[in-house]
Design a protein that fits this description.
By secondary structure, the chain is of the alpha+beta class. 20% of the residues lie in helices and 24% in strands. The protein folds into two domains: 155 residues, no CATH class; 141 residues, Immunoglobulins (Immunoglobulin-like), CATH 2.60.40. The strands form five sheets. Strands 9, 10, 11, 12, 13, 15 and 16 form a seven-stranded antiparallel beta sheet that branches. Strands 7-8-14 form a three-stranded antiparallel beta sheet, with no helix packed on it. A hairpin with a 2-residue loop joins strand 9 and strand 10.
């Protein structure tokens, strides 16, 4: 009886939602997909709204649409399951994020991603085209599976299979000054790797408690905020001694830049230990700074790139040091990043935010000369 009631409730929600182009709550997925739900609930997808992300909230606080109390244009990708998304994107209406609206709290929901039917490519940004039927919950499993609560389409959606399901939001974003403020430049066919295979790697545990399996795709979405250790294998850090110093090579084997958002800053920290004395060498910074009138500017104002030292996709970057090594010296190299460029912390009033100020370690390597 319990499962019958859940099933009826689920299909009632879907039927009602489809008419309004809304989506079943992610909480509904927990009963059958507990492992996936627990991963998702703490992910940036589940928390991609100002109320749950201090950094996004700080940026949104500076946005002219927020200052004028107009509309949440970011909702297209940050709250796509909102019941008033059309109003958020309309120039004729006012619609801001509402912490008391359950559909806003869904952020990028389970049902939203699994109902992406196709991607429309546009110059400014892409658009996800959604299916309007409860029978089309798309997935990547090749064998046929059945659920008493919703339909499953495991084949026929190329975007799920090749990872392009992510590029509706993660491909590019052009501002009104024709500046691409955030781009993956992704090539999902490169060496068989794609967004899903890298950022949603297979981990232990069943997809569902209705169909026992040994593994499932990770729904915590490994990235710069969390679980970046899952991605470290795609970036190699190597050491080479030279006559008058040494070099550290960073080989980015992915098809996109090491960091994509212009607010972030990557740093290579290198030290040399000799006879128990450690010498910290100068940090090497990798960053992309947007600007206007020769000064750093917010993404919606910027019309140029003032500086771009970010390591690009498929790039091998060499950093040289004039520190002359001696036999037995130990070299420690740490590659990591700040989610907010330290020079922007004060401007965004994030001085007291631990996440914004934290140096996130991505990869550590140790070498001996």
């Amino acid at each position: 009886m319990k499962y019958l009631l859940l099933s009826l409730l689920f299909f009632f929600n879907l039927f009602a939602n489809d008419k309004a182009h809304t989506f079943a709550p992610s909480e509904d997925c927990k009963a059958c997909h507990p492992l996936i739900y627990d991963e998702f609930k703490t992910s940036m997808h589940a928390n991609a709204l100002p109320q749950n992300d201090a950094i996004l909230n700080a940026v949104w606080a500076k946005h002219p649409k927020h200052l004028k109390a107009e509309r949440f244009e970011c909702g297209k990708c940050h709250t796509p399951a909102a019941d008033n998304l059309n109003a958020m994107l309309s120039k004729d209406q006012k619609a801001l994020p509402d912490a008391n609206n359950p559909t806003h709290q869904e952020a990028i929901s389970c049902a939203y991603c699994h109902r992406i039917k196709s991607i429309e490519h546009h110059a400014q940004s892409n658009t996800n085209i959604m299916t309007n039927t409860e029978k089309n919950y798309y997935g990547t499993l090749k064998e046929h599976m059945e659920s008493p609560y919703h339909g499953i389409v495991s084949e026929g959606n190329e975007h799920m299979q090749n990872g392009n399901v992510c590029i509706g939001c993660h491909s590019h974003r052009m501002n009104n000054h024709n500046l691409n403020v955030c781009s993956t430049n992704i090539d999902n066919q490169m060496d068989g790797a794609n967004c899903v295979s890298c950022h949603m790697q297979k981990v232990a545990g069943s997809v569902s408690n209705l169909h026992e399996r040994s593994e499932h795709s990770f729904h915590g979405f490994a990235g710069s905020h969390a679980h970046s250790d899952m991605l470290s294998k795609y970036v190699d850090v190597t050491f080479e001694a030279q006559e008058k110093g040494f070099s550290i090579d960073i080989n980015n084997t992915t098809s996109h830049a090491l960091l994509l958002h212009p607010l972030r800053m990557a740093v290579l920290k290198v030290s040399v230990t000799r006879d128990a004395k450690q010498t910290q060498l100068k940090d090497e910074v990798f960053v992309r700074v947007l600007g206007k009138d020769s000064k750093p500017a917010m993404p919606w104002i910027a019309d140029t790139t003032l500086k771009d030292t970010m390591i690009q996709g498929s790039e091998k970057r060499r950093v040289t040091y004039d520190f002359v090594l001696q036999k037995g010296d130990k070299i420690d190299a740490t590659l990591g990043w700040f989610l907010v460029n330290p020079q922007a912390i004060e401007k965004l009033n994030l001085q007291d935010d631990a996440v914004a100020n934290k140096f996130h370690i991505f990869k550590e390597m140790h070498f001996t000369f």
